[in-house]
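On clarity, I found the account of how folds are encoded harder to follow than it need be. Since the whole study asks how a given chain folds, the encoding of that fold should be made plain. The format is easy to grasp once an entry is in front of the reader. For illustration, here is how one protein appears when written out as sequence plus structure tokens.
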Amino acid sequence: MTASPTSPSFPLVSVVMCTYNGEKFLREQLDSIVQQSYPIHELLIQDDQSTDRTTEIIKEYQARYPFIRLHINEKNLGFNANFHTALCSATGDFISISDQDDVWHPDKLKEMMACIGNKAMCFSFSATPQDHSIDDIERRLNNNESLERLLFSNCVPGHSMLLRRSMIEKIPFWDDNVLYDWWLAVNAQLYGGVVRCNKILTNHRVHQESAMSLFYQKNYKKAKPYLPYLKGYQSYRALRKKESWQKFYRHIYRESNGQKELNTAHRIVNAMLGRSFFSFLKLCLFCTIHKDKIAARKKINHLRAFFYPCFYAYKNKCFNDRAFHD
């Protein structure tokens, strides 16, 4: 079944894609989207001033599929602000996010719409071409995407998400110095919760020219393993002085207050916002006590759990003022 204009019996689903010089892999991704078994309300593509044939390719598809909408930014925004503004332009009841260089499973939208229930967000697994085994997905099922982990890690990639537009509209502000998908995942946990679809529904293409690959190449260098223990607290103190950091965690503290299921996260954030060394020690103790909630997988020793805030701060470049604007 090829995607077609949405009928009244189907909730409206928008697909949001952001593009920048993506001509190499774009056709394959567009083919996988327009051939979805679930009807698409709109495919909103926002181009960030591409200099190759990206927009020409999109216009070719637009001529054949009237539900494709193309917007070309007046200036280059960077991938983070590009996704933020594109998401706010979508009109469907649900919004699915697409990278420009992946390939979707034919039933991706159908499976995720069946899974989301009453939650604010559903996400599914993705795999590289070398990464399709059952053993791999079983390993990933042990992953942890709780709000407690999201306090320290951006662990739900945007290309895996299906979101309620009503949840996005509840977000009181956007900070383009924070990764858009991290912000979405955190707010989904705050405003309705997250459910995981335990299926591989995206073939995720990892290559050196992708936006996230370029971001990590620029902002992350491999550290000697002992450095977070020695310099982590110093990094943590510098990190918490950033305005974006303060806005991020004050928002979580405020919105998690009074939600019983988010009480642990609320207490952890309270310790993070404290200014004293005692508050930092309290945070380290919380991480030790709740190590199964903050770690990627539920196997982390007590020493590493205690120093988890040091590892988080030493590696964290996600509040850099200009990191996502280039």
